[in-house]
Specification:
The protein is α+β, with helices and mostly antiparallel strands. It has helices at 25-30, 65-71, 73-77, 79-85, 109-122, 158-173, 181-191, 196-214, 219-234; strands at 11-12, 15-16, 42-45, 54-56, 62-64, 90-97, 141-145, 149-155, 247-252, 257-260, 266-278. The relative contact order is 0.17.
Length: 327
């Protein structure tokens, strides 16, 4: 055990390289050197077991943050955090996207615990690809924009969805605003279970509708259409490109934030954020080249920016209602 250590350490933090990352976002906002050979997507600061930060000790030795917490939990976390969680309960990271990420829906705490227990009982190894729940945690997330940032987050109202779909797409999905949530669930279920011939029909209808919306004089319609075209360009032939017509499109300015609870369908599109999330690698998402996904009963949620920090001071507090998270 390491003894007589200071309370404050320099950290060496890992960079995660994903295809959707950027070539300038992390270096611009963290000062780290840019890897010219591949995009850098996330800069992790925390004790996540997949890639923990390294503490640089006074003698130059390096110690992973999770190991330090395991050796001296109360000293590292404080009494309140240790008694409440027994571990560092969040992962803090900088995320920078140059193209849309996959659509995601995170499980709530009850589903995460039940799923983890079920897979432990079945003997599915935590590193096996068929493993869904690698821990018991949910993953609510608070995201604070460092640059202009766009995202899909939370469902639109049924009437707005019907208007954006237009007559042909509404007929294709048998969508009716009067049927509300039931019709929305049927639309999503059908969209991601289409046969190949149906996908071609959807692709043709969606491209035509997106171009019509992108040329609209209405700003909301224009944004929805342009976002569909953006997603289609990065994920051709994928029915997930329909998502901007039933999910809210949010454009955040630096200093604005969104809170994404468990159960809310979302996808980050472009830009750089600070992300503060419960520690969990688990979410329901897609592969890097497809938006096809399975749903954890996504729920309706308002995900408008909750606070804008004043530019003259660059400080302030963002705290979602009914959440212990704040930034």
């Amino acid at each position: 055990m390491h003894r007589n250590l200071p309370f404050v350490f320099p950290l060496s933090n890992p960079v995660r390289n994903y295809a959707w990352g950027s070539y300038d976002g992390l270096s611009r906002y963290t000062g780290i050197a840019q890897d010219r050979d591949k995009p850098m997507a996330e800069y992790w600061m925390g004790a996540h077991p997949d890639d923990p930060s390294l503490l640089i000790l006074p003698d130059g030795e390096k110690l992973t943050l999770d190991k330090y917490i395991a050796e001296q939990p109360v000293r590292a976390l404080g009494d309140e955090v240790f008694s409440s969680f027994g571990e560092l309960p969040f992962l803090f990271k900088v995320l920078s996207a140059s193209m849309p990420l996959s659509i995601q829906v995170h499980p709530d705490k009850a589903k995460a615990e039940a799923g983890f227990a079920r897979e432990e009982t079945l003997g599915i190894g935590r590193s096996q690809p068929e493993r869904d729940y690698k821990d018991r945690n949910h993953k609510p997330e608070l995201a604070l924009a460092l640059s202009d940032f766009s995202a899909l987050c939370g469902f639109r109202e049924a009437r707005e969805i019907e208007e954006l779909l237009g007559p042909e797409l509404s007929a294709f999905f048998s969508f009716s605003a009067e049927q509300g949530e039931a019709s929305l669930r049927a639309l999503i279920d059908k969209a991601f279970r289409l046969r190949e011939k149906e996908k071609l029909s959807l692709e043709r209808l969606l491209e035509g509708r997106a171009r019509a919306l992108a040329g609209s004089a209405d700003a909301n319609e224009r944004l929805a259409g342009e976002t569909v075209l953006l997603c289609s360009a990065h994920y051709p032939h994928d029915p997930g490109a329909l998502s901007p017509l039933f999910l809210q499109v949010l454009n955040l300015k630096p200093g604005q934030a969104i809170y994404v609870p468990a159960g809310v369908m979302h996808a980050y599109l472009l830009g750089t954020i600070l992300s503060y999330a419960a520690v969990s690698p688990r979410n329901t998402s897609t592969s890097t080249n497809s938006w096809t996904f399975w749903i954890f009963r996504p729920r309706q949620a308002s995900s408008k920016p909750v606070k804008e920090l004043k530019s003259e001071s660059r400080t302030g507090k963002v705290q979602p209602r009914n959440s212990r998270f704040h930034a």
